[in-house]
Amino acid sequence: MQLHPRHFGRDLRDKLVSKLMKDVEGTCSGRHGFIVAITGIESVGKGLIRDGTGFVTFPVKYQCVVFRPFKGEILEAVVTMVNKMGFFAEAGPVQIFVSNHLIPDDMEFQSGDVPNYTTSDGSVKIQKESEVRLKIIGTRVDATEIFCIGTIKDDFLEASCNFLLRNEILRTLSKVYLYSRPDLSLQLDSKIYVHLQFMLLYWKT
User: Fold this and answer.
1) How does pLDDT run across 132-188, given as a tens digit for each residue?
2) Residue 192: is its pLDDT beyond 50?
3) Which Gene Ontology terms cover its molecular function (predicted)?
4) Residues near 180 by Cβ (< 8 Å), separated by ≥ 6?
5) I need a labelling partner for 169 at 20 to 30 A (CA). Which of 56, 116, 193, 194 fits?
């Protein structure tokens, strides 16, 4: 990690960590995947001055949360584009393409102002901004990018009608975690607990 001489001072480490987070978070490594967030700094080594510039390069060892999809993984994604060849969707930073050959046979492409794939009975429609549950069947890893191929032909895939419900459960679980942290000295709110139990019961059905 390179640092400009103007940052040298008592807050050198803070400046270094700030620049590391700015430069690294949100990038993609073909080996490790997308770097979502830096969670900790393990060590900062001695700096090496670059001749003629004044910049100093510091070796930094850090921990981070990464996201790397793998073959066979089930993801929920948002459709970004639909055409007769299939559709593109995004799951976080990952772009996924689903070919028309990997879409259920009872879904047909409908052209028009809003291109979409619709079932014969009209009960399910996939168009831009739709939420879908898909399965990764292949990945292509470059130095700075990961591209995936997906399918919605398997059971329990296609349009995710419970997408919003699942997100609500995740948000509620986050509240449960927050309220149950011992360092906050707070107890789980009874309303949140009842709400969670009701949602999980509905989810099972």
Assistant:
1) 999 999 998 887 788 999 999 887 665 554 444 554 554 555 455 444 444 433 333
2) no
3) single-stranded DNA binding; single-stranded RNA binding; translation initiation factor binding
4) 186, 188
5) 116
Among the residue ranges 34-38, 132-136, 192-196, the one predicted with the least confidence is 192-196
Residue 89, beta-bridge partner list = 79, 96
Q: Kindly report the pTM of this predicted structure.
A: 0.65
Q: Helices 190-204 & 163-180, crossing angle to 10 degrees?
A: 150
CA distance linking residue 8 with residue 43, whole number of Å: 18
Contact 118, 52 (CB under 8 A): no
- The three state secondary structure string of the chain is CEECHHHCCCCHHHHHHHHHHHHHCCCEECCCEEEEEEEEEEEECCCEECCCCCCEECCEEEEEEEECCCCCCEEEEEEEEEECCEEEEEECCEEEEEEHHHCCCCEEEECCCCCEEEECCCCCEEECCCEEEEEEEEEEECCCCEEEEEECCCCCCEECCCHHHHHHHHHHHHHHHHHHCHHHCCCCCHHHHHHHHHHHHHHHC
Q: For residue 191, what are its two tokens?
A: 């309303």
Query: Residues near 182 by Cβ (< 8 Å), separated by ≥ 6?
Result: none
